[in-house]
Each structure stands twice: as C-alpha cells, then as structure tokens.
Amino acid sequence: MQRKEIAVIGAGVFGAWTAWLLARAGAKVTLVDAWGPSNSRSSSGDESRIIRGAYGPKGHYVRMTDRSFGLWEELEAAASLRLIRRIGALWLFGDDDAFVRDSLGFLRQWNFPLARLTPAEAAARFPQVNWQGVRTVYLEERAGWLLARRAVQEVVARFTAAGGELRIARVEARRGAGGRLDELRLSDGSSLRADRYVFACGPWLGAVLPDWIGPWMRPTRQEVFYFGPPPGEPAYTDTALPAWLDNADGSWYGIPGNEHRGFKISCNDLGEVIDPTKVDRAPDPGRLARARDRLAYRFPGMAGAPLLESRTCQYENTPDRDLIIDRHPDDERVLAVGGGSGHGFKLAPAVGELAAALALDRATPDPLFQVSRFR
User: Fold this and answer.
1) pLDDT tens for residues 25-53?
2) What global pTM score does this model have?
3) Are 14 and 351 in contact (CB under 8 A)?
4) Is 235 found in the same domain as 370?
C-alpha cells in the first residue's frame, strides 16, 4: 500500500504531536515551521504549562486530559527526561466554585483525585498564601505542570527519529481551480505537494486560512512574569507549593519553581488583538504593575520581589474558547488544528490523535470542534 504523504504546517505542540503520531502510523510526513519548534513567537514557547483536569461541565476535556496525561507520561518514560512536575494544583474561589463542582463527576470518572479544603485547612498547609477573600479551596492531586519548551522539542526529536522531515521555512499556499490547494511554496524556493495538508499554525491559523478560520480566530497579547523568591527560601518553589489558579477575585494563575527560573504569575484577562509576527514583545508596564500587586497580595512574602524574566506571548481564541479540529468543507485534503485559547497545551497528545485520525481518513470531524458551530 502506498504511504500517504502529509504536510503539517506549524511545529508547535499541536503540530508536533500530530506529525509524530502520523509518522508512527506509517505516513510520510513533512513538518514545516517558519522559526522552528517552540520558538519564542509561538504559543508553545516559554518554559511551563499547567496540566489539570477540572473543566466545569465540559467533560470531553477531562477525558482528553486523562488521555493526554498518559501520553505525556509515556513520552517522559521513553525519553528518560523530566517533562512533568506532579505537584498538584490549588483552585481558589470566592463565593462561586461552580467551575469545579460541575467537574466532580467527570473528575471521578477519569481518575483525578480532588480534595476540598476549608480556608483554615489550606492556611495550615500553605501558610505562604494570603487566603483573604477565599471561600473554597480544592487541591487537584494529579495535576502539576509540563516543561513546555523541552516537551515540544522532545516530541519533534521523536518525530524525526521516526523518519519525519523537519523543514524551517515560511509557507505560502498556492491554489488552483475552484480554490483548492494546489501546493505549498516554501521560502527556500522549493514546493511541497501532499495528499493531506494539516495546518496547525497557532495564532497564524486565521491568517493562513482567512476565508474559513479568519473570522473565528483572535490572537490576543498575554503577559507572563517570573519573579525572584527570597534567597534560600523554599516556600515559593514547587517543593512546597502546588501550581495555583486563583479565581477568588479575577482570574490569575501561576507556577512556583519553573526549574529555578522563578515564580511565574499571569492573568487570564484577554489583551489586545495582535499580529504575532510583528508585535514587539517587551513587557507592558501596566500589566507588570498589576502582576506585582497581585503577587504581593496573594503571596505576601513575595512583595517587592525582583522581576527575573518576562514573556509576551498570545492566546489564539475562538469565540467559545474551544478547539478547532476540522476538515475544510470545500477541500477534504485540508485540515485545521488550533484554537488552544490559553488552555490547549496539555491536551496536545489527544488533539494530535484526533488530527492524525482525520488526516488518515480513520475518523470524521467531531461536531464539538467543527468550525461550522460558529455559523
């Protein structure tokens, strides 16, 4: 049987997993990226991502997280390389904890142990946290964080070891009669033809597929900051504190430790829409000031901590903040994978499985992730 030839455009976490799983299935795969795997412009760059199970009433994401967790663990074991820090995740809520309560049945079904704590119990276990304004606390024991950049690079290394080809080039889609994709022209002057084209372009997905994805994709500027804990103080490392998601007043999250890079904090509020190629990535002074204030409020021992590093990245948001994994309605050879919307990194192994199955004609698009849901 002739091997199916597949081009995957985008070597972020979605594209990397899709390409690797396709290569393992026997396809001839070319993975193309303009700047390389986990580059600093991509949404898969930076050092760390939280992996957790709670997803409100969206049980399909709990199932996908469970599947992804298993695949991340398989990759880590095969690589003999640390890719996951299993430190748990603290959820902090004010008066409304429906997001986790709506997840309880799914969490039990997919084996995500969850402990509910009173603020007093939480304060006894984690005295470095200011629990003011917090009414309910949950500790997700299976959760933790992924070493993001390292993980993407390891997946791509596995892909090339399986016979896949990685090319660093800008891609231009050339279309023929009826608007169907004819070939990809690369910035090195070569062309690429395939049986299937999987576009996993992160924040560029709408620009690459403007008529189909463009109206439904908004890349927004997001800021991440790493602050330096006091010298010799373990309380703000991941040996003493889980990852945390603070919904008691606003929506903040963070990861302690980060392989000694510092204490990470960020806000989920969406920033302005950006061009991810051209945007200057210097930190925004207003967002930095807000992060300093929030850090000092929730973690008083970190008040006045120096800024060690910052990252300006982006979310690629769909209208409902859900994924896109779909086949083009007018060209069955073209697939789109994206819409991570700030929460997709951990789901990438399961996303890659779904996308690979579509590319190999072993599945049909799931209505949950079809673009037609927006119309």
Assistant:
1) 999 999 999 999 999 999 999 999 999 99
2) 0.97
3) yes
4) no
